[in-house]
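Deliverable D4.2, example record:
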Amino acid sequence: MPAPQPAEKIGKMKKLRRTLSESFRSIAFKKDDSGFDEICVTKMSTRSCQGTDSVVKPLDTIPEDKKVRVQRTQSGFDPFEKPTSQVKRVHSENNACINAKSSSTGKESPKLRRHSSPSSPTSPKFGKADSYEKLEKLGEGSYATVYKGKSKVNGKLVALKVIRLQEEEGTPFTAIREASLLKGLKHANIVLLHDIIHTKETLTLVFEYVHTDLCQYMDKHPGGLHPDNVKLFLFQLLRGLSYIHQRYILHRDLKPQNLLISDTGELKLADFGLARAKSVPSHTYSNEVVTLWYRPPDVLLGSTDYSTCLDMWGVGCIYIEMIQGVAAFPGMKDIQDQLERIFLVLGTPSEDTWPGVNSLPHFKPDRFTVYSAKKLRQAWNKLGYVDHAEELASRFLQCFPKSRLSAQAALTQEYFSNLPPRLWELQDMSSIFTVQSVKLQTESGDSVQVCARRNSQGKASCGSKH
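Output generated by the structure prediction step:
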């Protein structure tokens, strides 16, 4: 047989790339008993989503004899070393059903149950692009645009995160990771993923619509938030983090912009694009995570061996910012400047205060001015106005990672002792505001409900970010 001509070869290569990109994600939906949608992500091949080996489970529910295989799958690549890494790198490994029940039970295949509806065939359905109306653009990033939208199915407001796909490169790993993780997380303090729409050009994640985020809320109320509101926001943040940390998931990008605030004051963790399911035993991760101001000193110094303590440093920085009204460590130049600002308050580390610091890649003692540790209220005076606030902040802002307080332990601290005991008994999906005596206080003469109304009229800067 004569060899194919160059033009024919190029055509075959383009067709192969297109097939690989499109075949990775064929999204089918079905309803579980609770009424929530479930997603099955399959390869369009002769293999189907069957058997327990193809199901991605939380790591704490995986039997010991199965953990080795799951660990190898997770550690075979780290998409966050280059956040724009694409899906084609793992076509040979991924054939996962996310939250899908095994078809071995004899039930109808999820691919054949694509949100069947008793209504007419022309009625809006979940999983369809024409089921949502775009109302206004809320923001745009390097690979996604977020719109405020409205569901034609139930009339509810939604946030549409539209991710642009490249024909040659496929779906960004950040989008796949975010969708995979969020679909398995059901908690009042984590943004809810309603739907996923996949077309040839885009992947759209449909979220519940939340009016504003903590960054914009603090901008609207400068000088520090009401101490009672700080306490409620922090409690909700810790509640959401405790939930994901118990499932071995790290958020890895905590900052005020990624904490959504509803019109009732409910705080929700959002933007899981950099989140990572941490395998057991631990292995190294990229150190290019977390916005600079909220990045812990161990990561700034090049550590790639971290756990939930990574997120807890961010909690401390956000806590200070809510109380004081300014960022805790607003580095203006580079990593060196960021570290200097941290050491100025917490003291320059040594092997005595931080065992192992000398072995970190970027720690050179002669590069840093030697500072002694200060009381936190010397740097942020408003910590001294609230009982136990300075003590709690100091438990989060520890240079030595292993000394940082965990989210679960933080919820039991004396700082929260005046909150109603029922808050610790709530179910995961129950808001803290279902407890009658819990409500936000007025901020500087302007209630959070007023902020919400201004949002709906487009007069305030508050907008939903995901």
